[in-house]
Amino acid sequence: MFFRWTGGGRRPPLAAENDKASDMTQVEHPNALSLDQGDILTDQSHEVMRVWVTNGAGSSVWISAQILEDPTTFGYLMSDTIRHAARAYATTWGLDERQALESIVAGLSAELRNQVGEITTIQEGSLN
């Protein structure tokens, strides 16, 4: 499933601005995350979600819901992801990891509570 976040006029702030437009796929995109130093992916590995932010245009989110049948499990995955994000912010920006976690959770809570941004379904999910 593919969603576009419109964010009610807000956009995710990016640390570095890059205005170069491109039709490149994620694999060849110069701003894609490198997986070179990560876990070894096998034929049992599955990508569950991909998220991109674009300056001034919000975010693009792809979710493969058929991988995790129970939405609660997706919630567990999001919790783990948020904890990893707090550590990434702490080590990248010299922040206290607990404060980074609290800031992420505050932003998440505010967005869920206020539902400021709209999401548009671009592609309906299916089990293929």
Describe this structure in words.
The chain is an alpha+beta fold and 128 residues long. It has one domain (2-16, 44-123). 32% of the residues lie in helices and 16% in strands. The chain is built from 2 helices and 4 strands; from the N terminus they run βββααβ. A 4-stranded antiparallel β-sheet has the order 2-3-1-4, with no helix packed on it. A hairpin with a 3-residue loop joins strand 2 (49-54) and strand 3. Helix 1 crosses helix 2 (97-114). The longest helix has 23 residues, at 71-93. The protein is globular, with a radius of gyration of 16 Å.
Number of strands: 4
Adjacency order of strands in the biggest sheet: 2-3-1-4
Mean pLDDT: 80
- Quickly count the domains: 1
Keyword list:
128 residues; alpha+beta; 4-stranded antiparallel β-sheet; 2 helices; 4 strands; 32% helix; disordered N terminus
What would you say about this model in short?
With 128 residues, this protein is α+β, with helices and mostly antiparallel strands. It has helices at residues 71-93, 97-114; strands spanning 2-5, 49-54, 58-63, 119-123.
